Amino acid sequence: MAGKKQFDMDTALDAAMIQFWRAGYADTSVDDLSRATGLNRSSIYSSLGDKDTLFLRCLDRYAMRYGDKYDAALSCAASDPLAAVRAFFDVTLARIADPELPDGCLITQSAMAIPVLSSAVAAHARQALGFQRLRLRTALKAARMTDQGADAFALHTAAVNQSLAVMSRAGASPAELRAVTDVTVGALSQALRTCNQDMSP
Asked: CA angle 96-75-159, nearest 5°?
């Protein structure tokens, strides 16, 4: 029975996450969550928490699911930083192309909605964005970029990655999204060459 309950909990959390992802925090009501999860309102409150609590759980679930994929993509950064950044973007582009998933990015939507979020939820959204910059910075430092270069490209790459979600919702084609990421990879390639020349004896 314990296993069945856990399976049901995972299914309910995934359904709630998709609902928030599709409609956004502000436009998702508890009744919407009830329809999405198949749970009545009292069951949602008793098992999943109030709307803010459930949203935080969904945000963590999303961040962990895709964070693990981003970490795997960046794992080769020390030996091949360009391949790592391409693989990083591939995670986002594959998610955008998946017809089973809503357009956009739950974290990006949450960041854009910060003015209407509670302080706790807004802080969580900012933290999720910060984690992405941190993982990128760590990867670029492993590629022997300077602190200044790693900071700048981590900020830029994270910003481009978030913009892909917005562009996809606005109707940008896969080719257009790929072209955007190619510019970033090209700029990174040039920066790495410059960095390596500066470090040469």
From this structure: 45
Report the alpha-carbon distance of residue 98 to residue 14 in Å, rounded.
Answer: 16
The H helix count followed by the E strand count for the chain is 9, 0
Question: Residue 105 half-sphere exposure, CB side, CA atoms within 13 Å?
Answer: 28
d(CA 23, CA 43): 22
Asked if residue 199 has pLDDT above 80, the reply is no
Q: Which two tokens stand for residue 79?
A: 């030996």
The answer to whether the predicted template modeling score (pTM) of the entire model surpasses 0.90 is no
Q: Are 47 and 6 in contact (CB under 8 A)?
A: no
121 near 52, Cβ under 8 Å? yes
pLDDT in tens, 76-96: 999 999 999 999 999 999 999
Backbone angles phi, psi at 154, to 5 degrees: -65, -45
In sequence order, the 6+-apart residues with CB closer than 8 A to the CB of 13 are 48, 57, 58, 61
Total Cβ atoms within 10 A of residue 171 = 8
Q: Helix, strand, coil % (nearest 5) of the chain?
A: 80, 0, 20
Tell me: pLDDT of 14 over 60. yes
- Name residue, tokens 């072209």: 179
- Which distant-in-sequence residues (6+ apart) come within 8 Å of 22 by Cβ? 102
Confidence at 180, pLDDT banded by 50, 70, 90: very high
